[in-house]
Design a protein that fits this description.
- The protein is of the alpha/beta class.
- The chain is built from nine helices and twelve strands.
- Helix content is 29%, strand content 24%.
- Bound molecules: iron/sulfur cluster and magnesium ion.
Length: 321
């Protein structure tokens, strides 16, 4: 079937001003020509170090920031240039879960009202009692006690607040969830609980997830496919197992080094990541990875490698593949 979400050549550049006259002194290439699709019921993990553009990609899809160019299609509809009002019916289809559940919840509202708020926008004809019953049922589903409905967010643990965030997102029956580092602020044991909950909910409600994280270990369990971003570009995109077993981009290999391998005999010699991520302001010409790549050669410094299929369903952007 057709993908539920299609991102085509998405680019987001911010002009950077400086000096006495505040002239444009450079451009931040936050997102630089990113393309991917998300299938119904699929989880696509989007991974990369901070500043790689993964959050900006999520924000552009959610229309929280306007892309410089490119196209975003939701269920076949081009939503790239829709106004707030035009976006209203589509917004319901696509909900967000943020990294810091505490910061994203209004501290002065009772949690039942926080969760009910989006529902009220989309089901104005429903009675308050109906909405409350729906929310109570959602609380059961996400593992929160019903007597918590009257509490305030600060009375909840980090994991419980993320369950609240999930309940709030689910209240309007979405089909796509953009989850921007949803478990990064949580303890490892709690991370696993929230990830498992998200997987159960995905199966039950046929949800599609774009799951953004800064390391592969977090997305390993939940993802069907994984996309790796580096300095605004998607450098590799592959089914999960394929990416772990047969990485094709030197950056992915380096990232895999940081994921613990259970059997040390299976550990192979991989590229060690040297240096820091260069600034996204006026990034290196050619391949963005050329300043850190142990395999870089002449061509890498003047020609950007396109993302292309190197095996069925496996894309990589490297001149050596
Ligand atoms: Fe390394 Fe060149 Fe491949 Fe970029 S294109 S990852 S610099 S070998
Ligand atoms: Mg981020």
């Amino acid at each position: 079937s057709a993908p539920i979400l299609e991102v085509e050549n998405l680019t987001k550049h911010f002009p950077l001003h400086g000096g006495l006259l505040q002239r444009e002194v450079g451009r931040v290439h936050a997102v630089d020509g990113v393309s991917f699709t998300l299938a119904r019921g699929e989880t696509l993990g989007l991974v990369g170090e901070s500043g790689c553009g993964k959050s900006t990609t999520g924000k552009a899809i959610l229309k929280l920031t306007d892309p410089t160019s490119g196209t975003i299609r939701l269920k076949g509809v081009d939503i790239t240039h829709l106004s707030r009002a035009q976006m209203f019916p589509h917004r319901r289809v696509m909900q967000v879960i943020f990294q810091d559940p505490y910061a994203s919840l209004n501290q002065r509202m009772r949690v039942k009202d926080i969760v009910a708020e989006p529902l009220g926008n989309y089901e104005p004809d429903s009675s308050r009692a109906e909405r409350l019953e729906k929310i109570a049922a959602l609380f059961d589903r996400v593992g929160l006690r019903r007597d918590a409905l009257n509490r305030f967010p600060h009375e909840f643990s980090g994991g419980q607040r993320q369950r609240l965030g999930i309940a709030r997102a689910l209240a309007v029956n979405p089909e796509v969830i953009i989850a921007d580092e949803p478990v990064s602020a949580l303890d490892v044991s709690v991370q696993a609980q929230v990830v498992n909950l998200m997987m159960d909910l995905q199966a039950e409600f046929e949800l599609s997830y774009l799951f953004i994280a800064h390391d592969l270990a977090v997305v390993q369990h939940i993802s069907h496919r994984i996309g790796v971003m580096y300095l605004g570009r998607l450098v590799e995109l592959a089914p999960k197992r394929e990416l772990f077993r047969n990485p094709q981009h030197p950056y992915t290999e380096a990232l895999l080094d940081s994921v613990p391998v259970p059997d040390p005999r299976r550990r192979r010699k991989r590229a060690v990541l040297r240096g820091d991520v260069p600034s996204p302001i006026n990034p290196p010409k050619g391949c963005h990875f050329n300043t850190r790549c142990p395999l870089a050669f002449d061509r890498c410094f003047h020609e950007a490698p396109p993302l292309r299929e190197v095996a069925p369903g496996h894309m990589a952007a490297c001149h050596l593949r």
